[in-house]
Amino acid sequence: MALKHRIGYLMALSMTGFSFKEADTQQGILLLEFRSLNNRYLELQVKLDESLRSFEPMIRDLISAEIKRGKVDCRIYFKSKTHALDVKNVDPAKLKQLASSVDEIAKHFSHVQPINALDILKTSEIMHDQSVDMNMLEQDLKKNLKEALLEIQLSKAREGEKLQKILLDKLKEIEVLVGEAKKILPILIKDYQTKIENKFKEALIAIDDDRLKQEFLIFIQKMDIDEELNRITSHIDEVRRLLKTDGAIGKKLDFMMQELNREANTLGSKSISPKTSQISVDLKVLIEQMREQIQNIE
Question: What is the C-alpha separation between 98 and 92, in angstroms, rounded?
């Protein structure tokens, strides 16, 4: 991939980017402009000069090979040097013929206005035939189109680098919350054990080891969140891996946010402690913040 070789490493690409290129070729000037915005799929709009219309399939293929998602607006204009209003290109014979025709018309119409010299120069029939070489134009177009695409991808990479940093920071915050949940779990079990024992004593009920074991088993099963915490950790690793993967990763990241949110919800439903309930809420806030940023990633 050209972008990878240019920046030297892989990173997430934003769907927002812009590039403008003006190329002075042998046959004329090419103007290329790209704008890219967020979109669920690739939506490509191409606006071309009539002289470039035959190249539209090639242009679309080159763009779609490089950009996978986003609303992309591509505008390309060509100003041919052969169509410049230069008196050196005037055909004297055709000019003389035009003058004779005007004189002949004037004989029949008494109110004929003088012909403007600029209008004469704009009359293609009096210009020497210097048609554009379409093969050369195609090569110039391909070369400059690839360069313009590289520039917009670099623009998207710069935005993507900012998004990547935000997401990685959020992942660290999630890891901190997971670590806190793992630390307080043994404390919650011990507190519950003391609570049950005290209730038995207050009720003057003899403490039966089997009965206690049964109570603890129910409690532990109810609040066993190790599996959820382990899955969250696994999802964090996968998100980090994706952020260093080549290609379009936005949809995959969005799916991972759904998985993380599912585990955070389960964590909240199993919670019997204000601390773990708060951790669940904090996790969902961070996941939602990440999801918002991921909507900008290709």
Answer: 10
Question: In angstroms, rounded to a whole number, what is the distance separating the alpha carbons of residues 63 and 146?
Answer: 9
Yes or no: say if 89 and 128 are a contact pair by the CB < 8 Å rule. yes
CA distance 63 to 33: 12
The pLDDT tens digits of the residues spanning 185-214 come to 777 767 766 776 676 566 555 555 666 566
**pTM for this prediction:** 0.71
Q: Which residues is 46 bridged to in the sheet?
A: 74
- Do 238 and 187 meet the contact criterion of CB atoms below 8 Å apart? no
Tell me the sheet residues that pair with 45. Answer: 73
Six token digits for residue 81: 């040097």
Burial class (CB in 10 A: 0-12, 13-18, 19+), 118: exposed
State phi, psi for 50 to the nearest 5 degrees: -60, -35
Q: Distance between CA atoms of 149 and 270, rounded to whole angstroms? A: 50
